[in-house]
Amino acid sequence: MEIYIFQIGSIERKFLERIRRSIEEAFPTCACRILENILQMPEEAYNPIRRQYKSEPILKKTLDYALKIEGETGGPCILLGIVDVDIYAHGMNFIFGEAQCPGRAAIISLYRLRPEFYGEQPNEQLFIERSIKEAMHEIGHAFGLVHCSNPLCVMHFSLHIGMTDRKQPEFCGNCLAELKHNMGKRKGLIHTIEDASF
Ligand SMILES: [Zn+2]
Ligand SMILES: [Zn+2]
Predict the structure, then answer these.
(1) CA of 197 relative to ligand 2 center, distance in Å
(2) What is the pLDDT of residue 196?
(3) Domains observed in the chain
(4) What value does the mean pLDDT take over residues 79-95?
């Protein structure tokens, strides 16, 4: 199984590399690569009234790209699209990310992961830690993991950034066992899971 990371819009390469390395450590049977292509944000995603981007067309674009890559390589893959704009889903003020569960497509937004967003001092290390947790979480969904009740597990639902900070960049024992079980055989109905706050 290959995991690919790619940018929708522009993201600093060094952040992508940090996320890539952590994903490879978290999913040791997978190879994680950064795709050189930078995809354009789908125009229809922007909502000028909310000044935010709807997640659905972004996830759809990620899925289309995943299917194209699977067609070219002949192997199964999961794609993580990374955006640096504020995204939302229907009925939610914002989301940190969204994924098919299980499926091929996952997205995260870096927009609300910077301390500056909350009026705090810039902290690159904290920003990267948050990005890694969100990336692991959404890829976990793509492998069929649902939300975990353990507040320290990376699969715990984040209602706000404080909950992301509380989580560890690790799967709890239960989620890890489930992940190993799911990694071999990917099956089940595909639905999407959003990580958000109301
Ligand atoms: Zn867990
Ligand atoms: Zn989630």
Answers:
(1) 11
(2) 64
(3) 2-145 (3.40.390.10)
(4) 96
